[in-house]
Design a protein that fits this description.
Elements: H1 33-44, H2 52-63, H3 67-80, H4 85-97, H5 101-114, H6 118-131, H7 135-148, H8 153-164, H9 169-182, H10 187-199, H11 203-216, H12 221-233, H13 237-250, H14 254-270, H15 274-281, E1 293-296, E2 312-316, H16 321-327, H17 331-338, E3 343-348, H18 353-359, E4 364-367, E5 369-373, E6 376-380, E7 392-395, H19 400-403, H20 422-431, E8 439-444, H21 452-455, H22 465-468, E9 473-477, H23 484-494, H24 510-519, E10 522-526, H25 529-536, E11 541-544, E12 566-568, H26 576-589
Parallel strand pairs: 1-6, 2-3, 2-7, 3-4, 8-9, 8-10, 10-11, 11-12
Antiparallel strand pairs: 5-6
Helix pairs in contact: 1-2, 2-3, 2-4, 3-4, 4-5, 5-6, 6-7, 7-8, 8-9, 8-10, 9-10, 10-11, 10-12, 11-12, 12-13, 12-14, 13-14, 14-15, 16-25, 20-24
């Protein structure tokens, strides 16, 4: 039983996000052809002959892409011999392949207790722990396997991935460099090295490593897919599309094909082919995609073209909080389609409910809730339990397929569709008087989820120096999360005070955040939840974008969602210094 590789891919497109897909790792297919061939060999050596035919039938089903039948044959073998370690092992592979990670984990644990070579199962347990987000546990399991298989390239690769995803990129690179020095033609190692340096922000070098992987294995689907994602980050959209579609042809697992289809949706949207992009984006909902969110609602699903007049429609918020704000751009069109006799029920992130209820007074606004069950993500709205008046439902992004299929469908005269509380806007205008003289400019410079994969989409704070030195401006901190170090640095090194408003939780009081942004003369920064809220309220907003960002919808210098927003874009990926200087010059001249 040869260990399967964890990490042949570097990107998950489960959510579009505000930028190119994040560089994360997906586990390899536990039922790959090579792995199943080794599994068959191990079965042939079993002494308990009664279970051998059943386990062979199970492997045949797995080879045919039928994990359900594979599990049934494995269970028959276990009925014959419940202490068959190989039976538990085959059942674990089948359940993992079916996406039932929790029960797969239990089956691997049973196999671990019964098989004589426990280290093999430890490696598979490590893969599954990795896939379920338990990166520290996975690291320990891979180290256990390597203690008896020190030359295993797959296990070294898996260990590097687990270490990388715990934020220890330098350690992962050392492991990979040593392995590549001894095995310079191994494509898997080159590809994984590419994922590490890509997460560190060196996208150009990552492409070089992906190309080495493809040189040694031209049909390495995930390396080609990774190169496509790197090209997307650089704004090379045509090359990204070629790589993505070529990777889809060579992908063997349905989960991988769905992941790649999601990446293709991002590319199409970034190219301005919105209809094609939104259609491909539906792959995020396929239950065969391991990263899919499964929605808990008992009603027929809306499809494009369905008659909405007079109906009761539920739209369920999805992806990140900023995406929910962004996708709400088309809610007025949905309300028009429902007509005076129709009704819209909107389930959003609970922190958004007051703002959305005020903005859309005829809509029933509820909070949604998200659950993790057996390794899968579920979302529902508890207040909808037992409701029998729902005609149709859809995830919030799905109506974009009908209402935003091209740029012409984005209204240019609708500036602001969210409505902050007027009394709170007046309150913050009074409070801002103590922030200093001059224009009141709110600044935000990072995302709350600023792991190594997302860091590359944000300028280092030190490069904000020319902006913060702009005369005639009083800068207001509207950055949520831990930002004391940056505020102290600005005062110590630049002599600039970033005034932080009192009496507001910038992360959780989103209704008041909307009012604060509306009271400012300008909101300035990178795309995150706050900048989306400011722009959706119609407030003056400047956004620093990145090459390949899908939110510009193929336009070079604007975001059609927010007609009043001004976009600043680096000439190439990571060239923040010139971009921040451009922002400073524009601020001084404005």
């Amino acid at each position: 039983m040869t260990p399967r590789s964890l990490a042949q891919s570097s990107a998950s497109a489960a959510a579009l996000g505000a930028v190119a897909p994040n560089a994360t790792t997906e586990t390899d297919d536990a039922a790959s052809g090579a792995a199943l061939a080794k599994l068959e060999g191990a079965i042939a050596e079993l002494k308990a002959l009664a279970v051998v035919p059943m386990l062979r039938r199970a492997v045949e089903a797995l080879r045919a892409g039928d994990p359900q039948t594979g599990a049934e044959w494995a269970l028959k073998a276990l009925h014959q011999d419940e202490r068959s370690g190989m039976g538990w092992y085959v059942l674990a592979v089948a359940r993992e392949r079916a996406g039932d990670f929790t029960n797969s984990l239990k089956c691997y644990q049973s196999a671990l207790a019964l098989l004589p070579d426990q280290s093999e199962v430890a490696n598979d347990l490590g893969r599954l722990a990795f896939r379920m987000g338990m990166k520290d546990v996975a690291e320990q399991l891979f180290r256990r396997y390597l203690a008896t298989h020190p030359d295993s390239l797959e296990a070294l690769n898996n260990l590097a991935c687990a270490i990388r995803d715990q934020g220890r990129g330098a350690d992962a690179i050392e492991i990979l460099k040593t392995a590549i020095h001894a095995n310079p033609t191994d494509p898997l190692l080159w590809n994984t090295l590419g994922t590490v340096v890509c997460e560190q922000g060196d996208v150009t070098t990552a492409i070089t490593f992906y190309e080495e992987a493809l040189r040694f294995d031209p049909r390495f689907a995930k390396a080609r897919y990774n190169r496509g994602n790197a090209r997307l980050a650089l704004g090379e959209l045509d090359g990204a599309l070629v790589d993505c579609e070529a990777a889809m042809l060579d992908a063997t697992a349905e989960d991988d094909r769905l992941m790649m289809r999601l990446a293709r949706s991002t590319i199409a949207i970034a190219q301005g082919r919105l209809g094609d992009g939104w259609d491909d984006y539906e792959a995020r909902l396929d239950p065969n995609f391991a990263g899919a969110t499964l929605f808990l609602i008992n009603a027929p699903r809306w499809t494009p073209g369905a008659d909405l007049a007079g109906k009761t429609l539920v739209l369920m918020g999805e992806q990140g909080l900023g995406d929910e704000v962004l996708f709400a751009n088309m809610l007025p069109d949905v309300l028009d389609a429902l007509g005076p006799d129709g009704r819209l029920v909107l389930a959003v992130e609970p922190r958004l409910t007051p703002l959305f209820q005020r903005s859309f007074p005829t809509v029933e606004v509820l909070g949604h809730a998200t659950y993790a069950v057996q390794g899968r993500t579920y979302r529902g709205a508890p207040a909808l339990d037992g409701r029998r008046d729902i005609d149709l439902w859809a995830p919030l992004a799905s109506p974009l397929r009908q209402f935003r299929r091209d740029l012409a469908s984005f209204p240019t005269d609708r500036v602001g569709y969210l409505k902050p509380a007027p009394s709170r806007v007046a309150h913050w205008r009074r409070e801002l008087a103590v922030a200093g003289d001059g224009r009141k400019v709110g600044v935000l410079w990072k995302s709350m989820k600023l792991d190594s994969g997302r860091q590359r989409y944000y300028s280092p704070f030190e490069l904000w120096a020319p902006v913060l030195r702009t005369p005639g401006c009083a800068f207001v901190n509207i950055q949520y999360g831990d930002c004391e170090a940056e505020i102290a640095w600005a005062e110590r090194e630049l002599g600039v005070r970033l005034w932080t408003p009192e009496g507001i939780d910038l992360k959780n009081d989103l209704d008041d955040v909307a009012a604060l942004c509306a009271a400012l003369d300008l909101t300035l920064g990178f795309a995150n939840a706050t900048s989306n809220i400011a722009a959706a309220c119609g407030a003056p907003t400047w956004i620093v974008s990145v090459p390949g960002a899908w939110t510009r919808l193929g336009t070079p210098d604007r975001m059609p969602w927010y007609p009043q927003a001004r976009i600043f874009l680096p000439e190439a990926f990571g060239l923040w210094e010139a971009t921040m200087a451009e922002v400073a010059a524009a601020l001084a001249a404005d």
